[in-house]
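Why does residue order matter? Because the sequence determines the fold. Keep that principle in mind as you read this record.
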Amino acid sequence: MGVWDLLLVGLVILLGLCGVLLPAGPGSLLVWAAVMWWALQDPQPVAWWVLVGATCLMFLSQGVRWALPPRQLRANRANRRMLAYAGAGSTLGFVLLPVLGAIPGFLAGIYLSERIRLGGRAEAVTAVRAAMRSGGSSVLAELFTCQLIAAAWVGAVFSG
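Structure:
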């Protein structure tokens, strides 16, 4: 697979990661489809193992998301800025503290957004709790899964 093709797959994965944060975005489906297209275009064992792992993670993520409260962030004043902060915090946490940093990074992003919006610490903590109860945990599960798949794809591309 050429550099331009890999860049296109990476762009679709990045678009899928952003799509997870949108209320009606097909983010996880885009990430999985990009990995599937890559595996079909570059039929090596590592590509197939990444695709199998991505598929298993997607099924596991869907099971976790069904067990969590429904995703209704828009109805509870979750604006795009809060979702952008949460996504940026999760990505930054994922990179700085590999893999496990995504969870505190997501929470820190929501906290920072709400602290800027509301001004006080207690109000921001209450808003983070409300956001996580109203569907933030579902978004976090889906985003974390897509970040794991993206990291596996990047590792597979750079390893061989």
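The mean pLDDT is 88.
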